[in-house]
């Protein structure tokens, strides 16, 4: 490990460092084996499928399981398309998965409203005829 003197402040700087730790002087064209910053990979890893959400499938399974199963099937389809590099396929399958999950939420809301209506109708009738 060699060292050199900084032209700015005269301080001793290790050859592996491009910036003087004493004054901040930048060594131009310095011998440096740390070139990874220049040769960084240009294409970032693709990572997670953005068109997919397991949360939708789980919510729809809890609310209305027939729709939840369809939603989960499309979730898996979207995931496998994504892994195969089929972005358009992953997007459309993911959208279908979310659509089925939303359908199950609507079915759950409507069935709750209907059962509440039936309950209150029955309750008011019972009150009317018993008093
Ligand atoms: Zn310096």
In total, the number of strands is 2
Oligomer: single chain
Bound molecules: zinc ion
Strand count, sense and barrel status of the largest sheet are: 2 strands, antiparallel
Give the rounded overall mean pLDDT: 81
Task: Draw up the topology in text.
Elements: E1 3-5, E2 12-14, H1 54-63, H2 65-83, H3 87-130
Antiparallel strand pairs: 1-2
Helix pairs in contact: 1-2, 1-3, 2-3
Zinc ion (ZN) binds next to loops.
Question: How does this structure look, described?
Answer:
It is a single chain. The chain is mainly alpha-helical and 131 residues long. The protein has 2 domains: 1-34; 54-130. It contains 3 helices and 2 strands. The longest helix is centred in the C-terminal third of the chain and has 44 residues, at 87-130. The protein binds zinc ion.
Quick synopsis:
The protein is 56% helix and 5% strand.
Descriptors:
5% strand; binds zinc ion; 131 residues; two-stranded antiparallel sheet; mainly alpha; 3 helices
């Amino acid at each position: 490990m060699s060292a050199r003197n900084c032209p700015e402040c005269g301080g001793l700087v290790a050859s592996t460092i491009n910036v003087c730790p004493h004054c901040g002087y930048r060594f131009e064209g310095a011998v440096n084996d740390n070139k990874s910053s220049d040769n960084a990979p240009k294409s970032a890893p693709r990572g997670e499928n953005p068109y997919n959400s397991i949360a939708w499938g789980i919510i729809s399974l809890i609310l209305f399981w027939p729709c939840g199963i369809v939603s989960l099937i499309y979730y898996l389809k979207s995931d496998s398309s994504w892994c195969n590099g089929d972005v358009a396929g992953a997007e459309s399958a993911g959208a279908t998965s979310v659509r089925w999950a939303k359908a199950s939420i609507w079915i759950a809301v409507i069935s709750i409203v209907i059962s509440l209506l039936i309950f209150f109708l029955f309750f008011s009738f019972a009150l009317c005829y018993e008093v």
